[in-house]
Each structure stands twice: as structure tokens, then as C-alpha cells.
Design brief:
Elements (H helix, E strand, L loop, with lengths): L1 H12 L4 E5 L2 H14 L10 E3 L4 H11 L6 H7 L5 E5 L5 H12 L3 E5 L9 H30 L1
Parallel strand pairs: 1-2, 1-3, 3-4
Helix pairs in contact: 1-6, 2-6, 4-5
Length: about 150
């Protein structure tokens, strides 16, 4: 966890953003994580984070025109910039998540795939429970670093 915390904090400190995506329950967890980084969770410090799962008009347009396997990779190609962070979450090696990861690497983003190898559990519900715990801890630690850096620079 330490590596991802420092990479995200440093990217945000440099004015970069975090993109995050997942399917089903992990879609909701992606939105929750974005709310934690951009909202007042834990510290009054705020970070740019976009859940690629939130715009139903965009998602359905991309799915219709380019295929559901491209709903996240297309957004990464449009929004992602070198040095940004991309977090993809999947319980089943979802093609749309894997394509987003590939697009992120092509754009020279910091790419993290969170999957069954990261979280304990034998079924999807257990993995989703582990995911939200992981994301809460990740948001807390990133915001703690940013808060300390902001206080030192004042």
C-alpha cells in the first residue's frame, strides 16, 4: 500500500489527477473513493479524482458507439495525461478495465490494477468489502500526506 499512497500523493501535489473505474459494486466503490478524495473526508485537503463510472449518458454512448469494452479506455484516452494516476478495479479480469489499464500505460500514467490478487476473499461480496476498506485507508493516507505537506508550505 505504501507505494500507491506516495505515488498518488506526489501526483496530486504536482497538479495531476486520479481516474478510477470498476464495474458493478466496484463502480460504486470508485465513486465513493472519488468523494473521499475530493470531499472533506478526514482532512480539509482536496484532491482531483474522477470516477469514470458516473456519467450514464457518456457511458451508454460509448458502449453503443464503441462497445462496452471501451467505456473506460476511451475516457482514459480523452481525460488522462502523463503523470496522472489510473486505478482500475475488477473481480474477474474485465476486458473494459484491462483496456483502460492499457490506455493508461500508453499515456504514461501511473497505473494500478486492484483485483483478486490484492484483496482477500473467495467471492465477489467479500472482495467488495475488502475493496472499500482498502480504498478508505488509501484515501486517508493520501490525504494525511497532502495535509502535512500543505501545512509545512504555509
Amino acid at each position: 500500500m505504501t507505494e500507491i499512497v506516495f505515488i498518488i500523493a506526489e501526483a496530486i501535489r504536482k497538479g495531476k489527477k486520479v481516474l478510477i473505474c470498476g464495474n458493478g459494486g466496484l463502480s460504486s466503490e470508485a465513486e465513493h473513493f472519488a468523494a473521499e478524495l475530493m470531499g472533506k473526508f478526514a482532512y480539509e485537503t482536496y484532491a482531483s479524482c474522477i470516477a469514470l463510472t458516473t456519467n450514464s449518458a457518456l457511458i451508454t454512448a460509448i458502449a453503443n458507439d464503441m462497445g462496452f469494452e471501451n467505456v473506460f479506455s476511451h475516457q482514459v484516452n480523452v481525460l488522462g495525461q502523463e503523470g496522472d494516476v489510473l486505478i482500475g478495479m475488477t473481480t474477474s479480469a474485465s476486458v473494459n478495465i484491462l483496456r483502460a489499464m492499457e490506455a493508461g500505460r500508453e499515456r504514461r500514467m501511473h497505473v494500478f490494477l486492484l483485483d483478486r490478487n490484492v484483496w482477500a476473499g473467495d467471492d465477489t461480496a467479500e472482495i467488495q468489502n475488502e475493496a472499500i476498506k482498502f480504498l478508505h485507508k488509501l484515501a486517508l493516507e493520501v490525504k494525511e500526506i497532502l495535509y502535512r505537506v500543505n501545512r509545512q508550505s504555509q
